[in-house]
Design brief:
peroxidase activity, peroxidase, single chain, OsmC family protein, three-stranded antiparallel beta sheet, KH_dom-like_a/b, three-stranded mixed beta sheet, EC 1.11.1.-, alpha+beta, about 30% strand, 2 domains, GMP Synthetase, Chain A, domain 3, about 140 residues
């Protein structure tokens, strides 16, 4: 696996590409002279955690013939303040899936991802606690 980063401006904006050739923009915050032209590196880590666990969960549920109509993930991270490096100390993930799903199978798929399969989670566990909630919205159900 290899990624390449190319500086776009004279500040902090880079374009990164991986093996698939997809371009990801990375930038710093305006507070340090960035221009909000891309995601910040620590945001990318949270996105990586959400994406890694999502892939695991979808693979597990597909094997169990579970139909996922929609799948949304919110990842919130809290960093250690006043220290350099400012690593994540706690992360909360909310998984919201809809469809004719078996809630126990969804719950188990999330557990397997975060406790066994997700490489990104295993890296982040070194500095952070990771907890999660799971919401299953049944097909035809309305949210209040």
């Amino acid at each position: 696996m290899q990624v390449n980063l190319t500086r776009v401006d004279q500040d902090f904006h880079f374009q990164a590409t991986g093996d698939a050739g997809v371009i990801i923009n990375i930038d710093g915050s305006p507070a340090i002279g960035g221009h909000n032209a891309g995601a910040r590196p620590m945001e990318l880590m949270l996105m990586g955690l959400g994406g890694c666990s999502a892939i695991d969960i979808i693979q597990i549920l597909k094997k169990q013939r579970q139909q996922i109509d929609s799948f949304d993930i919110t990842v919130k991270g809290e960093r250690v303040e006043g220290e350099v490096p400012s690593v994540f100390k706690s992360i909360h993930i909310h998984f919201a899936l809809s469809g004719p799903l078996d809630e126990q199978k969804v719950q188990r798929a999330v557990e397997l991802s975060l406790e066994k399969y997700c490489s990104v989670a295993f890296i982040l566990y070194k500095t952070a606690t990771i907890d999660y909630t799971v919401e299953v919205i049944r097909a035809g159900a309305t949210q209040e």
